[in-house]
Design a protein that fits this description.
The chain has 15 helices and 5 strands. The chain is α/β, with parallel strands linked by helices. The protein has a 5-stranded parallel sheet with strand order 2-3-4-1-5, sandwiched between helices.
């Protein structure tokens, strides 16, 4: 049995996930627990069945399991794949399985498209693969498409990979991950990724369409990045103004769908930021409409989403929000010079900022203090 502190085990599991490129906080958290319970703690003695819909990431999960077997259980053999879908004749299964087990000794044997064998042959294969002990017998992983309504007990321990549309946090992580590769291929320089709002647009389409495939999300992100690369100058962020029309054209998202999603997003943000009673209280205290208070909160949330060049600490958030507010005030004044800016506030000297204040304000707005 594997003996180590849970903290050290979690760190090693995280390193395995990083090494194979497993993306998605939700998937990583769940898989870490599953692999510890069903693979590591048993020393890899029991077969593990990886089940999920097409494109959900089953093969990436198998890569992570093999990495865990290597790193945490000290297995030194290779990962060998046996395509069960190619074994049309029942008589060929026994010989093919015996060869694959020899090739994968002290490693991992992956029985791909395992569902093609049928229930009886699957049980026979797992029974044969479970013979023997020690490093000579490989760890056995099977990959099978999820079958709706399948309640048949399996002799293998099961890891179910949820479809992409059911893993909301992973959608956002994958969008950022796919952006990095696609932007390099598209030569999209100076763009910092998708805005928070545009990622919400994409995530809503994934949920609405019941998209299970990670590969299809990669294609969507890639095509949107190339769309952004065709714009001159390159955008600082890929925003909803570019993303929404593309989604409506290629993914069937209607204006009504988008408006409903916008309403739900605003409602969720509203609940997360403050209760309605608190907004109304601030409205009375500051003498401005409650809607304005809420829009300001939404703006701050949006600004936080754009902070990716420095840590999102209290000071950095406040500094960035104040900078944006200064820019907004400068635009409202219509000023081109510091003198124009000062005159906007009135003819009397006491109504205007001092020259030193205007100078400092100008430097912050035009980033001449950095």
């Amino acid at each position: 049995m594997y003996e180590v502190s849970h903290h050290a085990l979690d760190d090693q599991m995280t390193a395995c996930f990083d090494r194979v490129g497993l993306v998605g906080r939700e998937l990583r958290e769940r898989l870490g627990h599953e692999l510890k319970a069903k693979l590591v703690m048993s020393g890899g003695r029991d077969p593990v069945e990886v089940v999920g819909s097409a494109g959900a990431g089953k093969h990436k999960v198998v890569e992570a399991a093999h990495a865990a077997a290597t790193e945490l259980l000290g297995r030194r053999g290779p990962r060998v794949n046996l395509d069960c879908g190619s074994l049309a004749e029942p008589a060929g299964l026994e010989d093919a399985l015996a060869r694959a087990m020899r090739d994968a000794r002290d490693g991992t044997l992956v029985l791909d498209r395992f569902g093609k064998l049928g229930e009886e042959r699957r049980r026979a294969a797992l029974s044969a693969a479970s013979l023997g002990a020690g490093p000579e017998r490989p760890i056995v992983l099977t990959i099978r498409r999820d079958v709706a309504g399948d309640t048949q007990p399996s002799p293998a321990q099961r890891i179910e990979v949820q479809p992409l549309h059911a893993r909301e946090e992973d959608i956002w992580d994958l969008i950022d991950h796919f952006f990095e590769a696609a932007s390099e291929d598209a030569g999209l320089e100076g763009c910092r990724g998708f805005s928070r709002q545009s990622k919400a647009d994409i995530a809503e389409v994934v949920r609405q369409t019941g998209l299970a495939s990670v590969r299809r999300l990669r294609e969507i992100v890639r095509e949107l990045v190339f769309e952004a690369a065709s714009v001159s100058p390159a955008p600082l962020k890929v925003t909803s103004e570019l993303v929404r029309p593309w989604l409506e054209q290629h993914c069937g998202q209607t204006t009504g769908d988008r408006q409903a999603r916008d309403a739900a997003l605003v409602a969720s943000q509203f609940d997360a930021l403050a209760a309605r009673s608190m907004v109304e209280r601030f409205s009375e205290l500051h003498g401005v409409p409650a809607e304005l208070i809420q829009r300001q909160a939404d703006l701050v949330q949006e600004i936080i989403g754009y902070i990716d060049d420095v840590p999102r600490s209290y000071r950095n958030i406040v500094d960035r929000a104040e900078d944006i507010q200064r820019v907004g005030l400068w635009l409202v004044t219509g000023a081109e010079t510091q003198a124009d800016f000062r005159r906007f506030f009135g003819e009397e000297r006491f109504m205007r900022p001092t020259k030193s204040v205007a100078w400092a304000f100008f430097n912050r707005v035009f980033k001449r203090d950095v």
